[in-house]
Amino acid sequence: METMIKKKIKEVKKGDQSAFEDIVSFYQNKVFHICYRMVGNAYEAEDIAQEAFIRAYTNISSFDERRKFSTWLYRIATNLTIDRIRKKKPDYYLDAEVKGTDGLDMYSQLAVDQALPEEEVESLELQSFIHREILALPPKYRSVIVLRYLDELALQEIAEVLDIPIGTVKTRIHRGREALRKRLRHV
Amino acid sequence: MNCKKEAVELMHKYLDGELQKEEERRLRDHLQACPSCQNHFHELKRSIVLIKDTGAISAPSNFTANVMANLPKEKKRRNFIRKLQRHPILTAAAIFFVLMFSSIFSAWNQDQQVTVSKQENLIIQDNTVIVPEDVTVDGDLVVRNGDLKVEGKIDGDITLINGNFVTDDPQNELNGENYRAYASGEVNEVNQVFEWMWYHTKNFVSDIFSFDSE
């Protein structure tokens, strides 16, 4: 897979736009997932994920082929989501738990997980509860937790994606885990 | 062992997969002895399981198509350059034509002075070349950027570039055809750039042939 992606990147660099389609379809779920867990709703996540791919395309010449493409791509995506979160009012993610926005939350969930069997509705409720708990984390802990446990990146890779020292990654993961432990202990 | 600090620290190290053998043994020993730490550890592991269990989310079905539709258009210039690289002969031909046409156009535009081929007894007056009545021009006559008025005779071709035939008598307006009466050779009137080009090409070809014959 890696070699296929490398080949496609070379083609895109040469100016072949259609080769980028395979790259998008290969990484779309991962990137969308990161964005979704970070910003919390599917519309915004789609918007940001799309923007991330477009930026990756326009800046493909600056990508160093000796490095991992996914790391580079995730970095663009997380930077975009962090920017987006910063631009919002600081109380936004607390607002997400308010009843008024609840409907939107559920709706966006359903739009993503299409055609869910009915028996899974219960687990969906639990999932959306946990999803909101992740969103309630401060963004700097949220990003490491999402990358570590939802995308299962290695600590070193997280450090590269977020461009922070690995020691900082560890500290943030520890604090993030503690915060989640407190929030989820009664589930 | 200090529960708050050391034990929790070791738990996180364990969760990061960085616990040494010796540390692992110490943590295990401590957990067996300390129910509160056991509970803490259990909660940590459980929250991780819960997070991981939120399930993978896939992007909307038309995501890739949307991205592709929103990509900036392949840069036309780059496209163009790529084509040039692929067809060097075509490129050479294109450059040749560009240079040729530009030189012809600039020659057409710059040459605004009245010039006439070397012949004696011609009168040049207000951009009009007059062949007086009693004069017979010997050889071809070329007038550039000026009108021509012929009263005498021309023993050769007439070429009129960017100018008109004029006459004193408006009733009897003359054109190239009528001038045949005065000229013994061909009459060329060149008023357009394309005609000018054609004229050049013809001259060029005839030059080559005259070289050959010499």
What does this structure look like?
The complex is a heterodimer of chains A (187) and B (214). Chain A is an all-alpha fold and 187 residues long. Chain A folds into two domains: 1-88, RNA polymerase sigma factor, region 2, helix turn helix motif (Rna Polymerase Sigma Factor, Chain: A), CATH 1.10.1740.10; 137-187, Orthogonal Bundle (Arc Repressor Mutant, subunit A), CATH 1.10.10. Chain A has ten helices and no strands. Chain A has helices spanning 2-13, 19-39, 42-58, 69-87, 92-95, 99-112, 121-136, 139-150, 155-162, 166-184. In chain A, α1 packs across α2 and α3 crosses α4. Chain B is α/β, with parallel strands linked by helices. Chain B has three domains: 3-52; 75-110; 115-213, no CATH class. Chain B contains seven helices and nine strands. Chain B has helices at 3-15, 21-33, 35-52, 63-70, 76-86, 88-110, 193-213; strands at 115-116, 123-125, 128-131, 136-138, 141-144, 147-150, 153-155, 158-161, 187-190. In chain B, strands 1-5-8-9 form a four-stranded mixed beta sheet. Chain B is rod-shaped. The model of chain B has no long low-confidence stretch (mean pLDDT 75). The chains are: A mainly alpha (187), B alpha/beta (214). Chain A binds chain B through residues 15, 17, 20-21, 24-25, 28-29, 31-33, 36-37, 42, 46, 49-50, 53-54, 57-58, 111-114, 126-127, 130-131, 134, 145, 149-150, 155, 170, 173-174, 177-178, 180-181, 183-185, 187, and chain B through 8, 12, 15-16, 40, 43-44, 46-48, 50-61, 63-64, 66-68, 70-72, 74-75, 78-79, 82.
